[in-house]
Amino acid sequence: MQRVANLLLKRFARDTRGAVLVEFALVLPVLLLLYTGGCSLSDMIACKRKVTVATRSLTDLVSRTMSPAIIYNAPQNASAKSYLSASAVVLSPYKLNNAVEQISLLRVCDATHAYVVWTQAQTQNVDGSTVTATTSSHTAGTLPVNETQSSNSVISIPSDMITSTMVPTSPDGTNVCGNLAPGDSNKTQVGTAGGWLFMGKITYSFTPTLGFTSLTTTQLTDTIYMLPRLY
After folding, report:
1. How would residue 109 be classed by pLDDT, with cut points 50, 70 and 90?
2. Which range marks the domain in which residue 21 is found?
3. CA atoms within 13 A on the CB side of 219
4. Structure pTM?
């Protein structure tokens, strides 16, 4: 009896039938995770590319067709609604209601800062048919009204965007970014001189289609600066 049992155990140890099936069952969850994770990651990369293209389209359209001088003199009348909506369409086939589009007009006050002359932001429903104004991440100043401006209207900008001719000088030698009160002959007030920049920004809340992957909702953002074509 013991001999028969030993023979059966040896035979069982040598039998490899079904081993591949067992190994595949062990590896399958890992393969599924790699596949779904790869699909979600590639989808997020494609969405990020869409955000970049849409941001560039927005900034390019506004910089070609809107005059900074006209906006500066009457910022309350300026509207880029059609351009913001057009840039949102570029995001298709991704859901448009996950995106916020923003455009701002900046006036350089030193090599790394600018004054926010005007800003506008919006979102929309899933197919873009209904647009809703939303709060911009920038705080626009109140120029050309002759009053003291808020320091919140001065923001940081990339230094590699600025040339020396874009930076205004104040007769008294002070940094124009800090001259918030109305100026006189010895002081240049912030926002009243300096080069212009349009800044476009789009933020998209990306959620993977396959929700059980390790990727969660991610904020995809791109910001592009351009010089205006009109003055």
Report:
1. very high
2. 2-226
3. 6
4. 0.84
